[in-house]
Amino acid sequence: MRLLLVEDEQRLSEALAYILRKNNYLIDIANDGITGQEMAESNIYDVIILDRMLPGKEGLKVLKDLRKQNITTPVLVLTAMDEIKDRVEGLDSGADDYLIKPFSTDELLARIRALGRRKSEQLQNGNIKASSFELDPLNCEVLVDGQTIKLTLKESQLLELLMRNKGKVITRDQILSRVWGFDSEVDMNNIEIYIYYLRRKLNFKDTGIRIETIRGIGYCFKEDNNV
Q1: pLDDT tens track, the chain, 227 positions
Q2: 16 phi/psi in degrees, rounded to 5
Q3: Domain span holding position 147
Q4: Are 94 and 174 in the same domain?
Q5: DSSP 3-state helix, strand, coil percentages of the chain (rounded to 5)?
Q6: Residue 203 and residue 92 in one domain
C-alpha cells in the first residue's frame, strides 16, 4: 500500500515515515500544501494523511480541491485542532477520517488499515477504460477484445499513472517518483524499458490509443476518439 504524508513538522514526518515503513507501507512525504496537492493529483495513493496547518496552502483547501477533481483517495486529516466544529469542518470538506494530535501509533495504523480496505473496495469497481482497453489495477490485468493480458506490478502502476492522467505529459522524474518511489535509486533507463514492455505487450496498433514519447521530457497517454 502506498501512502502520501503531507506534514510540515520535520521531526513528526520523519518519525511517522519510519513507523509506516517499518509496517511495510510505501510512504512519500510532502512538507507543504502545494507540493502535497501536486503529488495527490497523481492519483496513485491508497491513503493520504493530511495535516491541516500547512505552509503554502492550508490542508482543507488542498482537500477541497482534490475532491473537486473527483480524486476519491481516502484522506485521514491529522491535526491538533480538536474542537467539534473543527472536526465537522474537516469531514464536510471531504475527509474520510479525522485524528487528533497527539495520537497513539496503534490507532493511526488501525485507521490507515480501515481506509486502505475502503480503497480496495473502490478499486474493485474502479477499472480504468480507454478505447477498447480496460485496466484492472487491482489484479494487474488489461482486458481488450475479450482477451486478458497480465502485467507485472510495475507495468500496471506505470500504465495506471499514464491512463489516470490521459492527455497530460508525465515527466520522467514524476514517473520515477510515483512508480518507484522518491528515494529510489533506479536508473532513468528503467522507465524506457518498461514503456517498451507495455507497448510490446499491449500492441497499440489500430486501437486508437498510444503512449507518446515527449522527447527530453516524458510520456503522454493519448486516445483518438475517432478510431
Answers
A1: 789 999 999 999 999 999 999 988 888 899 999 999 999 988 778 899 999 999 999 999 999 999 999 888 999 998 888 888 888 998 899 999 999 988 899 999 999 988 887 665 555 556 888 888 889 887 889 988 888 999 998 999 899 889 988 898 999 988 887 788 766 677 888 999 999 999 998 887 777 788 999 999 999 999 876 54
A2: -65, -40
A3: 128-223
A4: no
A5: 40, 25, 35
A6: no
